[in-house]
Write the structure tokens for this entry.
Amino acid sequence: QAARLALGLHAKLRELGVPVWLDIRSDDKSERAMRAAVEAARFVVAIVSDGDGRTEGTAYFERDYCLKELRWARAAGKHIQPVVDVADKHRIGEFLRAAPADLRDLGQVDFVDLNVTDDEYFTVGAQKILRKAEEAARAAPWDAARRAHAPTPEPALGPLARRAHAATAGA
């Protein structure tokens, strides 16, 4: 489910003219490459899900690299835009309760829900992600000042980030 969203969002953002880096499409899948992509990104999209829904350790907030990417993004001052499949919209609270304490404040960000079965709805969702990233960029000076007085989180995201005008994605 998350991989399908990531691949669909990767394609849709490219269709909208946005260069995108997607970890599962990259030749270099090393931790170094993931961190570099997150740090070079303009924003990061976290595709939050319960994984396969059956196997422990597959949910987004249980995956080490997803958590690392989130913390790297946060440490680098990147906007993190959480997204969910439209079918999981009612489960956002459940997903956030599973997040580590230092990442639960992602619940203060308005999640974007995506519907891969309806291209028009999916396009609106992708455009909403881009708009929210632009809004976050405009608010960045205030956010940077606020973060300067907050405890620095440990360095670690999960999958779709936008570099200067590009994005990083993962599932």
